[in-house]
Amino acid sequence: MPVPTNFSAPVRLSAKERAFTQIQHWIIDGTLHPGEKLIDAELAETLSVSRTPIREALQLLEMQGLVMMQPGKETRVRGVEKDDILKMYPTLAALHCLAAEQAAKVIESEQTAKLNDLNTAFRFAIESGQPYQAMELDEQFHSLIIDIADNPYIANFSASLQIHIRRFKYVFLKQPGTSTLASADEHEALIVALRAHDATLAAETMRQNIIRPMNELYANL
Question: Could you report the per-residue pLDDT of 86-105, keeping only the tens digit for each?
Fold first, then answer.
């Protein structure tokens, strides 16, 4: 099981947290491939921890649906399938539409200004060919709307689902640059709806912003 040695380890984390964070990152970005067998002794040596926090981290990753564990036998990275996209994106859309509805009722001018700044940077990242930066900014844009909605259940479920969507982009597309200028235009329309406190329009625009790329991705895979 080849694992890299030139990585930056998180600081001020417990051994279990450090192992969990790093292994999760390797699974999401494809360093650890779908179906790959995970050997706790090798992971422990690479991460300079004992095997106990590795096993604890793998249990957490199993709960997230990123690994499959067979006690006493083996642990492997869980696979991903093309049709998973048709399950993940509509679920994410439902959560984010609800967030947009709730955010529209309480959003303030300073927050719409921040959304506009994020979308300006997002558009620039797309135009300048920076797919990783574009993905990060897109997630920050949507995360801010969820924060404004102030619903911890939306936040928690969305964060969990986003892990799998980001992994899908890496595994199937080999890089996360799936955003187009259409996404930036939809963000602008969403900001207008939020600024007007139009919850219905905000939800409709949010749904389009998530379902459109889902259909494009599925058609091109």
Answer: 999 999 999 999 999 999 99
CATH fold group of domain 15-77: Arc Repressor Mutant, subunit A (1.10.10)
What is the rounded CA–CA span in Å between residue 6 and residue 74? Answer: 26
What is the rounded distance in angstroms from the CA atom of residue 64 to the CA atom of residue 52? 19
- Whether pTM > 0.70 for this model: the answer is yes
| 3-state SS class at 175 | coil
What is the b/e burial string over 166-186, where b = at least 16 CB atoms within 10 angstroms of the residue's CB? ebbbbbbeeebbbbeeebbeb
Tokens representing 117? 């700044």
The set of residues, in sequence order, having a beta carbon less than 8 Å from that of 80 and lying 6+ positions away, is 34, 164, 167, 168, 171, 172
Neighbours of 129 (CB within 10 A): 9
Is residue 9 scored above 60 in pLDDT?
A: no
- Going by the DSSP 8-state scheme, the letter that residue 174 receives in this structure is S
Q: Which fold has domain 82-220?
A: Four Helix Bundle (Hemerythrin (Met), subunit A) (1.20.120)
